[in-house]
């Protein structure tokens, strides 16, 4: 079954879902061009996705990461308004799509220490990673493992047991993200849901912004609005929202013509 999703880029849709007009301006209304280097030719992601899925992922990547200008985010946290919205899937596929569009290094961090998912998305074993980097002096880049593309890497959640998980202290996280910024061009962090953990505020504070994932026909408007208010209260920049698993009450081809 196709995993449909769309960017909430129209003022009416975002206000209806979130009740916060400020989010409406986060995605530009125009289609920015990718910024590959002169010697790099952008390629199609080697993903088994439906055409609409790939189209929406490309739009997401271009609008979040590849907007022309010095202020384009390099470190972005993906989170959900509540557990089960599919933010890990969106984060993983966005990283793959981004890695196909740029020559620079794209690094994923599984920062959902209690419920990690990124290793499952790429069908790899959990290895020493983010939790281990937070506990010791070893540079976080030493825990990055290559994935399918030469410029795509993963720092898994780490091999620690749940009872031995480190605290996500803001200064410690900031130090490790700063280390990785010097080695990777783009960093995508998969975080717990906003309503499930206070860690999102810590991660969002050290990143350039957050992408909030909602689930069609599941995410409650009040919960989504509260997630936005919590992020704003923590001074976390919301880059935009993604509506995941949208269903079409009419044939999709007709929907696209409306």
What features would you describe in this structure?
The two termini are 23 Å apart. Helix 2 crosses helix 3. This protein has an 8-stranded mixed β-sheet, with helices on both faces. It has 9 helices and 8 strands. It is an alpha/beta fold and 258 residues long. It has a single domain, classed as P-loop containing nucleotide triphosphate hydrolases (Rossmann fold, 3-Layer(aba) Sandwich), CATH 3.40.50.300.
CATH topology group: Rossmann fold
What is the terminal separation in angstroms? Answer: 23 Å
Determine the number of helices (DSSP H or I, runs of at least 4 residues).
9
Major sheet details? 8 strands, mixed
Q: Would you tell me the structural class of the helices and strands? A: alpha/beta
Number of domains: 1
Low-pLDDT sequence parts: 1-41, 248-258
Helix content: 25-40%
List the SSEs and their pairings.
Blueprint: E1 5-7, H1 11-18, H2 51-65, E2 75-80, H3 87-101, E3 106-110, H4 118-121, H5 130-135, E4 145-146, E5 152-155, H6 170-181, E6 186-190, H7 199-206, E7 209-215, H8 221-233, E8 238-244, H9 252-257
Parallel strand pairs: 2-6, 2-7, 3-5, 3-6, 7-8
Antiparallel strand pairs: 1-8, 4-5
Brief descriptors of the model:
alpha/beta; eight-stranded mixed sheet; 15% strand; 258 residues; 8 strands; globular; Rossmann fold
